[in-house]
Amino acid sequence: xxxxxxxxxxxxxxxxxxxxxxxxxxxxxxxxxxxxxxxxxxxxxxxxxxxxxxxxxxxxxxxxxx
Amino acid sequence: xxxxxxxxxxxxxxxxxxxxxxxxxxxxxxxxxxxxxxxxxxxxxxxxxxxxxxxxxxxxxxxxxxxxxxxxxxxxxxxxxxxxxxxxxxxxxxxxxxxxxxxxxxxxxxxxxxxxxxxxxxxxxxxxxxxxxxxxxxxxxxxxxxxx
Lengths: 66, 148
Hints:
The complex is a heterodimer. By secondary structure, chain A is mostly helical. Chain A has helices at residues 5-11, 16-23, 27-35, 42-52, 56-59; strands at residues 2-3, 60-61. Chain A is built from five helices and two strands. In chain A, α2 crosses α3. The model of chain A has no long low-confidence stretch (mean pLDDT 93). The longest helix of chain B has 34 residues, at 78-111. The chains are: A mainly alpha, B mainly alpha.
């Protein structure tokens, strides 16, 4: 699953540490999400979407067979 | 830092001293065990009291709160939870493999009559351990399965 997380975060001028603190996850989790190495739970996906004021589909791109 | 840390440190120190006195003055057959408890009590007590004193400083208290917060986040962080689960699974498999390997090695030793009694005991104990591992795994799996 791909995502626009890094792009969205940089657009808003937020550091990984800051985003992690708001969402109450570790900085490494944000890093792994941005690199696409880790897919978030539905709860974290909702938290991220709510934080950026977008829908989950705006942030995460599901590709068939991925 | 909370006051209960101080009380815990004092209690550990007290029990350490108590075991030390019992090991020194008591005419008991299990002195080695008491010395072990003494070391554990005194060691933990001193470390706990030192950390309590160290984090009493207001500047360090902030640092301590930050450390606690990081610790709290790491406990709930879903990536860390996943990593812990995977680490436990890999450790479980590796341990089973190691136990199986040792059973084979000690069975061969017993067959060739090397350390006969010891090898037989090890084979029996390790086989029981493997059985227990698998049994616990099954029980926990079914227990979790019913809850989810």
